Amino acid sequence: MGQYKGIFSKKLTSGTTHIYARFNYDGIAYPNKNFTKLYGCETEYSAKLKLDEIKILIGKGKNPFAKTYSTLKEIFEDRKEQQVKNGYWVYSTARSYAYFFKNHINKEIGYKKIEKITYEDIMKIIDKFRKDQTGSKNTIIDILKPIFKEEFKKGNIQENIMLKIDKYTVKVQKENLQNRTSMKNIEIMRSLYNAISNLHGSKPMNLEKHKMFLYMLILTAHRFGELTQLERKNCLLNENKIIAPKEITKTREEYHYPIPDECIEFVKTAPNGKLWYVPRGGTAIRLFNRLLNRAKIKTYENHTITMHDTRKIMISIMINDLGIDSRLADYCLDHKPQGTIKHYLEFTYDDKVKAYKKYWNYIKNDTINIDKNNTETIDNSSSKSNTTTSNIDKLDKLIEMLKNDYITKEQFNFERDKLYC
Asked: How much is the pTM?
């Protein structure tokens, strides 16, 4: 032990000598602290002076050994590492928050010292989002609020400015679809469906899973939050059926619906656990936005189409285009029946499957017509000239779809050959 109480020198394996301090204060023991590394002390005397300062800080209720940072980015990175290490954040949460921090927070205030960040700085970031993007605004708050709370506790900032910012709870009613796009419902769904096979942008190990998730979303129109939680054990392969447990559904009731043909082989070979590896938050939204771009869905300025819109679009097509009973269409979406209907009207699972298959056939080709008796027919006109004209029109559509990358060359050749069989 050196000449000052609690201060001593230690020679390290590297050959250098560092100054350490070990002391008790107010009933709390503080083990060996490397004052050379922490504060640059090169003599026991300078370490003794530093220790006196530290005791004064402790007496004021501050933690002098708390790690300090120069920028908000450093604080966030350290917090992310600790949250994952302690099991508070799963990998997908950490990745989603990191993506959001990088794209919306870092370029604005990430380089700033936390004590230099103002209320106006944060509101500038939040106000960049549209009024209907309350989820994104709340994500900004979710990332920053615990950081400022902790730094205020440590005494690194004099005011927690995040206490002035409340989370957004007002839900803005979305515009009707017809006010957001000039495209017809069936045009939207066919474009989205055909674009899935040509999707790219995901990591190779995830691309096939992401495509399968999108097929499920487009063809079943079930809530994306439910789809992201589906597991291999929820699939009854001998019946090509999904049984979504009540724990993951909005109504807290079990849902049964068919597996689209496009997904059956994938599900058969999928390992146990989550099927799609598409986290419920940012990843699913980014994936769907990539699909919108790939499908070249055109919307009016400042408007978009969301994953939830696929539910509205499907039920509209079922009722208006295919003549399916509105109550059966509602049943396909597993809405909870209201009033006397839930007591006196009951559709079977077979009814649901037939409605889905009718919808799937309509999305994949445009040869289905609905006659006055509300039955499916195929336009098989006996007139040779009408048939030839019809095939030419269909070929023109196929060529246009190929030009716009809605279908692959293989799909084009297959559909073209079918026209002249």
From this structure: 0.52
